[in-house]
TrEMBL record:
It comes from Xenorhabdus japonica. The gene is acrZ. It is found in: Cell membrane. Keywords: Antibiotic resistance, Cell membrane, Membrane, Transmembrane, Transmembrane helix, Transport. This is Multidrug efflux pump accessory protein AcrZ. The chain crosses the membrane at residues 12-36.
Length: 46
């Protein structure tokens, strides 16, 4: 019984952590590509 509760607690803690990590990764990649695309458009204009 304790093992089940322990695994439930672990999963309840890990789910938001993993979701936050995925969101941070997407946000970081979006910012990176935004910087790259800004450089590309500046190069094309000149």
């Amino acid at each position: 019984m304790f093992e089940l509760l322990k695994s439930m607690g672990f999963s309840l803690i890990m789910v938001p952590v993993v979701m936050a990590a995925i969101l941070a990764l997407i946000y970081g990649l979006g910012g990176l590509f935004n910087i790259i695309s800004k450089r590309e458009t500046k190069g094309i204009e000149r």
